[in-house]
Structures are given as C-alpha cells and as structure tokens.
Amino acid sequence: MNPFSIDDSEEHTINPFSVGLEDHTVNPFADPAISNSLEQHSHDTRVSFVPDVQNTAFHESERTVDPQLAAREQQLLQREQELAEREQEFRRQQDQLRLHGAYPPNWPSFYPLIRHNIDVDIPEEHQSTIRMIYKYWMAVVGLLTINMIVMLIILFSHPSNMDYLPGDFGVALVYLVFISAASFITWYLPIYMAYMKNSSLYSCKYMTGSN
Question: Cα(166)–Cα(151) distance, rounded to whole angstroms?
C-alpha cells in the first residue's frame, strides 16, 4: 500500500477552502458596542448640520435695526449741538448785559444802589480775586464798626479819667461812615468795574484812588 497515494473519494469530499467559512458568516455589525458607536457617530453628524436658526434671526434683526440706531444717534448729536449753541448765545447775551450795565441794582440788599454780583458780572477766572478783595473791604468795615461800638460802650460807662468821650464817639461814627464809603468808591468799586468790563480806565481810577 502506497502511503502517498491519494484516494479519489477523499479528494472529492475534502474541500481545502471550507476551513474558516463559518467565520465569514458572522456579521461584525451585530456586536452591540460597534452598533452603539456607529449610532452615536451618526447622531453627532446630524446634529452638527442643524442650522442655527436663532443666530441667523438675530443677525437678520441686527441688520434691520442698524439704520434706526444710526438715525437715533444723529438726532442726539443734533440736539447736543443745539444745546451748545443755545448756551453760547445765552452767555453772549449775559456778557452784553454785563458790559452795558443793563442789570438792575441789587446792593446793598436793604437799599439797592449799585449792581454787585460777582458770579454773573466777573469772568470765572477772576472771581476768586474779586471775592478776596471784597472780603478785605468787609474786614475794614467790620473793624470800623467794632471801633464805633467800643466807643459807644465807653461813652455810656462814664469813666472819670477819660474826657471828650462824645467827641471820640463822633469821630468813630464818622470813620465808620466816611471811610467805608470812600474805600468802597475809590478802592473796591474801580477794581470791580475793571474786571467786569475789562477796562484799563477803571484800573487808572483805582491807582489814583489808592494813592
């Protein structure tokens, strides 16, 4: 018997390609893990292609609102310009009234004789200077008033070692009236008018009065 001989019946019954055919009959997509992964990927792909309706609507509305905002901004700019022009005209009228003396007298308050309003009459850059000079003049008037009151008290106390008390009180009263009025007319008022009307003439009057 030849061991290398091949039986014809076995040659036709054995298929060498039949090995592993059962592996090809298995469906790889039947695995739950693979099918779930594929379904998740498909869902993500569909979601990524959904159009953003809200953002699109917002941009469309933004395009329609832009002209309205521009018109509103233009109106605000026009109003601001009109207010600036009115303020400038008001200041010009105030300057004209101040320079031509059209304001009524308001000082002193108990019996107005002259016009005196630092906030309106004097330019803003010189108001602090005029207020300081006005305080100096008020200090002079205050000292003269105190002097007169002291002399009045001494007059009514009748000290035995002091003579001519009525005359001293009269001098103190004259000082209060005369020096207060003279210093206001010849010293303070020329400075006030010089700053108010920006005139060198009143500066010369001040120099003459102070000398």
Answer: 9
Using DSSP's 3-state secondary structure scheme, residue 211 falls into: coil
| Nearby residues of 98 by Cβ (< 8 Å), 6 or more positions away | 120, 121, 196, 197
**Alpha carbon of 31 to those of 9, 25, 38, 42, 180: distances in Å?**
41, 14, 11, 17, 115
**Which tokens belong to 169?**
């009180």
Give the pTM. 0.52
Q: Of 87, 101, 90, whose CA–CA distance to 199 is shortest?
A: 101
Angle (CA) 180 183 188, round 5°: 120
Q: What is the mean pLDDT of each run of 10 residues along the chain (211 residues)?
A: 49 49 52 62 49 50 66 88 87 70 80 88 90 96 96 85 83 95 91 80 59 57
Q: What is the per-residue pLDDT for 9?
A: 46
Tokens representing residue 168 in the block: 């001293």
- Structural contact between residues 181 and 140, judged by C-beta atoms closer than 8 angstroms: no
Q: Provide φ and ψ at 202, rounded to 5°.
A: -70, -30
Q: Is 141 exposed, middle or buried (0-12, 13-18, 19+ CB in 10 A)?
A: middle
